[in-house]
Amino acid sequence: MSGCENCSGSCGHNINNVGIERSLIIIKPDGLQARVAGKIISKFEDAGFTIENMKLTKIDEELASAHYKDHIKKDFFGPLLRYITSGPVIIMVISGEDTINRARNLMGPTDSRKAPKGTIRGDFGKDITINVIHGSDSTESAKREIGLFFSGPDQ
Ligand code: IDP
Ligand code: MG
């Protein structure tokens, strides 16, 4: 329904969708290599997220650079690019309430060595680079990243 985003339901639109966010999740190459993709997907399902889209693909350098554009000047950019392009990945769009925060809590901190057991990185990640999963850090990033990986008529 157009023009009703801020009406709090007075126009009759479905207010149950208020607070629903999306996130772009990537199970990185080490996740598939270690055959833990299913376990990771289960964690999102068990937490109540809806999987709206999912594909198995390989990310090329151009797409990886676009995805990680904010990190281009960082000293770890080269290793990050080699890592994310090194093998197949699973890319998902998940949705639910407060998805950005809840998904990142489920993932654990960037450095897997500091991630508590029970978090995805704590259970399956190796270190600060090889950390098994990506999740959008804001609703703006999610929108941009979902557009990058899921656009076009055949996606
Ligand atoms: P995030 O994935 O937890 O949001 P970002 O800071 O956005 O972390 O970094 C993107 C990715 O770059 C990380 O997931 C990790 O693979 C890698 N990375 C981040 N910080 C470092 C670092 O200090 N050294 C090496 N690799 C890093
Ligand atoms: Mg990030």
Outline:
The chain has helices at residues 29-33, 37-46, 61-67, 77-84, 99-107, 120-124, 139-149; strands at 20-27, 50-57, 89-97, 133-135.
Describe this structure in words.
The protein is of the alpha+beta class and 155 residues long. The protein contains seven helices and four strands, in the order βααβααβααβα. The protein has a single domain, classed as Alpha-Beta Plaits. Helices cover 35% and strands 18% of the residues. A four-stranded antiparallel beta sheet has the order 2-3-1-4. The radius of gyration is 16 Å and the shape is globular. It starts with 19 loop residues before the first strand and ends in a 6-residue tail after the last helix. The site of inosine-5'-diphosphate has 9 residues, from loops.
Essential attributes:
alpha+beta, Alpha-Beta Plaits, four-stranded antiparallel beta sheet, binds inosine-5'-diphosphate
Based on secondary structure, the structural category is alpha+beta
> What is the percentage of strand-forming residues?
15-25%
CATH level 3 topology: Alpha-Beta Plaits
The H-level CATH homologous superfamily, spelled out, is: Nucleoside diphosphate kinase-like domain
Percent in helix: 25-40%
Shape: globular
For the largest beta sheet, what order do the strands appear in spatially? Answer: 2-3-1-4
- Series of H and E elements: EHHEHHEHHEH
**Ligand kinds:** inosine-5'-diphosphate, magnesium ion
The overall pLDDT, averaged over residues, is 91
Estimate nothing, just give the exact number of structural domains: 1
* Total beta strands: 4
- Count up the helices: 7
